[in-house]
Amino acid sequence: QVLLVESGGGSVQAGGSLRLSCAASGYGSLRYMGWFRQAPGKEREGVATIYRAGSGIYYADSVKGRFTISQDNAKNTVYLQMNSLKPEDTAMYYCAAKSTSGWSLSPERYNYWGQGTQVTVSS
Question: In sequence order, which residues have a C-beta less than 8 Å from that of residue 5 and are 6 or more positions away?
Answer without folding.
Answer: 22, 23, 24, 95, 114, 115
